[in-house]
Design goal:
Layout (H helix, E strand, L loop, with lengths): L2 H11 L3 H5 L4 H10 L7 E5 L15 E6 L2 H7 L10 E6 L12 E7 L8 H11 E12 L5 H10 L3 H4 L7 H7 L3 E8 L5 E7 L3
Parallel strand pairs: 1-2, 1-4, 2-3, 4-5
Antiparallel strand pairs: 5-7, 6-7
This protein binds S-adenosylmethionine (SAM).
Length: 205
């Protein structure tokens, strides 16, 4: 998978994304934002904001910056800017593996269903740690491989189609945490049958 195949895949998804992945992933989005301990005036970065389904869930007194590499997904999210149903929100077309923000720019970072999509999750997490203030919070929600039979079989069937699907079906939580030095505060299962994991980590760098 490379950036161009991801942009192509999400061009296909953009128009129907909310119908396909809106409700299915909603519990994880809500759970993540409920865990974020907001203070008025904070700057929040959402990486891979997609069509902006999470944006109305943020409180009005924080300012949210949403980035995504897909112009087609971001185009769908434009309805949530200018005060939409949430607070202040800005959207930027940007690669999460190489961000143009300065160091320590954000109080917290949210990453929803993106870790298995980006070609280099390690590079993205490095960038997230750089732009998040030291001691700030990093929240990730994603599907990670586990040993349950049914998801394992589904992952195996999907593996050859990862380029077309626009995500990597198999990636373990252990490998993710091993590759990314995060100070994990908590992990908990979310979404259907708890097959997705919400990670709350503190930024050490
Ligand atoms: C599965 S969607 C998740 C969208 C949204 N976060 C949600 O909760 O539904 C993955 C998103 O990550 C974006 N993405 C993939 N690679 C990216 C990158 N390198 N930089 C920024 N966004 C990226 C895709 O364009 C897509 O919008």
């Amino acid at each position: 998978m490379d950036d161009q195949s991801i942009i192509k895949a999400y061009k296909r998804y953009a128009g129907s994304y909310d119908r396909i992945f809106g409700k299915v992933f909603e519990h994880g989005r809500r759970a993540l934002i409920e865990k974020m301990d907001f203070a008025p005036g904070q700057r929040i970065l959402e990486v891979g904001v997609g069509t902006g389904l999470s944006l109305p869930l943020y409180p009005r007194d924080v300012s949210v910056v949403g980035i995504d590499i897909s112009p087609h997904m971001l185009w769908q999210a434009r309805n949530y800017t200018n005060g939409g149903s949430g607070g202040s929100c800005n959207l930027s077309l940007m690669d999460a593996q190489c961000m143009s923000f300065g160091d320590n720019s954000f109080d917290s970072v949210a990453v929803m269903y993106v870790v298995t999509v980006v070609p280099e999750p390690g590079k993205m997490m490095e960038e997230i740690r750089r732009v998040c203030k030291p001691g700030g919070d990093i929240f990730v929600v994603n599907h990670f491989s586990n040993h349950h039979l049914v998801p394992r079989m589904v992952e195996t069937v999907m593996l050859p189609f990862k380029g077309l699907l626009g995500f990597r079906p198999r990636f373990s939580l252990e490998a993710f945490l091993e590759q990314n030095p995060l100070q994990v505060v908590e992990t908990c299962p979310v979404n259907l049958l708890g097959y997705w994991t919400l990670i709350h980590a503190r930024n050490e760098s």
